Amino acid sequence: MVLEPLMMSDNPDEDDKTSVLVQTRPKTKRPPLYKVLLLNDDYTPMEFVVHVLERFFGMNHAQAFEIMLTVHKKGVAVVGVFSHEIAETKVGQVMDFARRHQHPLQCTMERED
Ligand code: TYC
């Protein structure tokens, strides 16, 4: 009977084909953030938009009025940045509130890069 020699290298990692990835940096990846956007339209009253910004985005009257005017003039503005879950909740609250008052106000969310 001939016995094949069992070869083993000095480096134990070369013997089995499974390998372990060495973690170089500690993984501290933060979850993505989402911008909540308010869109302009021709019908929603300005006071209603100001109220929405005060009620759902915690703005004071002056801040809310300023952001409302930005949307009115530019067509869109970021009204807040949140986690995915909070952003979805805000969008839902605004869309629901606008629909209940029969205003065409649109609110969307967009992932931050
Ligand atoms: N453009 C609307 C008006 O003139 C006001 C408005 C502002 C509507 C912001 C929507 O997101 C909006 N009545």
From TrEMBL:
One of the protein's GO biological processes: proteolysis
Coiled coil spans: none
Gene3D superfamilies: 3.30.1390.10
Secreted listed as a keyword: no
InterPro entries per the UniProt record, alphabetical: ClpS, ClpS_core, Ribosomal_bL12_C/ClpS-like
Domain called Adaptor protein ClpS core: residue spans: 29-108
Family as reported in the entry's similarity comment: Belongs to the ClpS family.
Self-association state and partner proteins as the record states: Binds to the N-terminal domain of the chaperone ClpA.
Role this protein plays: Involved in the modulation of the specificity of the ClpAP-mediated ATP-dependent protein degradation.
Protein name per Swiss-Prot or TrEMBL: ATP-dependent Clp protease adapter protein ClpS
Organism: Ruegeria sediminis
High-level lineage: Bacteria, Pseudomonadati, Pseudomonadota, Alphaproteobacteria, Rhodobacterales
Gene (UniProt): clpS
